[in-house]
Design a protein that fits this description.
This protein is an alpha/beta fold. The protein has helices at residues 15-28, 53-60, 82-86, 101-108, 135-143, 156-160, 174-184, 197-219, 224-245, 257-269, 271-282, 286-294, 301-314, 322-333, 339-342; strands spanning 8-11, 39-42, 47-48, 51-52, 76-79, 91-94, 117-120, 125-128, 131-134, 146-151, 165-170, 189-194. It is globular and about 60 Å long. It binds 1,4-dihydronicotinamide adenine dinucleotide and 1,3-dihydroxyacetonephosphate. It holds the Pfam family NAD_Gly3P_dh_C.
């Protein structure tokens, strides 16, 4: 008799991927009738002190490179081949830096269970000059499955330490929303499910650009009032971008964890903020700082700033988004960091 239990696979194993893998692997244990107990996690294979990272993770039950010091449940298994990892999975959790999503999905194409559904935890947008796509839609299109989105004020290290926070799931299907709630909700990681998946995803992507602006301000030692102004302006541009280029984005979504709360946390404790601050204080290029400061973790805000800029330029609308534009010009065109207050 074939099992009706859901098999879960986590695609990605960086800083957030590892923290989320821990939650998911713990939660399937609360629903043994609903979920298979083994959770597979696709790990981009790399060398770690002369060993394969997957082997170290499976032996130590810890992602020693991307989430050091946090023990993972024993029912999560690191697998280096994405097709093998996702074989037979009914629930796919995508949690990758956005620049790698397309390539990974192309490898999975044709190998995914026909009844699978997915959720994207990716904070970025698939932007080309000719158009803009949400990653939930792009994943859904390439793999021919439904895909929801999860985004919130969720700095991975704090979530992994089980410090209280909230998150937002945007999902069109009520039934899928219930499954994802069971998979992610915990007393310390509180899930709210909304229907506006577009707004949820847009917030997660665009707040990273604002966080780069906040980091520039910190590098200039401008203080809390300036940062609050950048956050407020950023929130306005995020909403305007959503309302201009996407139908159905609801203003209420910006008051969920994925909106203003994520802006606040990323602009105080995030990697985008930290590296942008160092960009001002060190004078080094952003890609050099990313390598020096993040030990393999990836920035999303600077890349998104460039992608948004290209998209707005193609529409002659750059001037309508002065904060996004200024972040781009400071990071990539040598504009003085002070522009972050002068030009917005
Ligand atoms: N770290 C955090 O606090 C949070 C991150 N996010 C978002 O989650 C997404 C994933 O972020 P993290 O898990 O933190 O990743 P990360 O920033 O730790 O990125 C490193 C990951 O990328 C993988 N990688 C490197 N080269 C690759 C390649 N060529 N192909 C595929 N994978 C490759 C690495 O193996 C590693 O797993 C991002 O969009 C991020 O914005 C969302 C909430 C919190
Ligand atoms: O998205 C995040 C917190 O919600 C993490 O932001 P950073 O990528 O800037 O660390």
């Amino acid at each position: 008799m074939s099992s009706t239990k859901q098999r879960v696979c986590v695609i990605g194993s960086g800083n957030w991927g590892s923290a989320v893998g821990k939650i998911v692997a713990q939660n399937v244990q609360n629903f043994p009738d609903l979920f298979e107990q083994e959770v597979r996690q696709w790990v981009f294979e790399e060398d770690y002190n002369g060993e394969k990272l997957t082997e170290v993770i499976n032996r130590e039950h810890e992602n020693v490179k991307y989430l050091k010091g946090i023990k993972l449940p024993h029912n999560i298994v690191a697998v280096p081949d994405v097709v093998e990892a996702s074989k037979g999975a009914n629930v796919l959790v995508f949690v990758l830096p956005h620049q790698f999503v397309r390539g990974v999905c192309e490898k999975m194409k044709g190998h995914v269970a026909h009844d699978a559904r997915a959720i994207s935890l990716i904070k970025g947008l698939d932007i080309l000059p000719e158009g803009i796509t949400l990653f939930s839609e792009e994943i859904g299109r390439i793999l021919d499955i439904n895909c929801a989105a999860l985004s919130g004020a969720n700095i991975a290290d704090e979530v992994a330490q089980e410090k209280f926070c909230e998150t937002t799931i945007g999902c069109r299907s009520v039934e899928d929303g219930e499954t994802f709630f069971k998979l992610f909700h915990t007393p310390y990681f509180r899930v709210n499910v909304v229907r506006d998946y577009v707004g949820v995803e847009l917030c997660g992507a665009l707040k990273n650009v604002v966080a780069v602006g906040a980091g520039l301000s910190d590098g200039l030692k401008y203080g809390s009032n300036t940062k609050a102004a950048i956050i407020r302006r950023g929130l306005m541009e995020m909403r305007k971008f959503g309302k201009t280029f996407f139908g159905g984005v609801e203003s209420e979504t910006f008051f969920e964890s994925c909106g203003v709360a994520d802006l606040i946390t990323t602009c105080s404790g995030g990697r985008n903020r930290k590296v942008a601050e160092a960009f001002v204080t060190s004078g080094k290029p952003i890609d050099v700082l990313e390598q020096e400061m993040l030990n393999g973790q990836k920035l999303q805000g600077t890349l998104t700033a460039a992608e948004v800029h290209e998209f707005l330029t193609a529409r002659k609308m750059v001037d309508e988004f002065p904060l996004f534009n200024t972040v781009y010009r400071v990071i990539y065109e040598g504009a003085h960091p002070e522009s972050i207050v002068r030009d917005i």
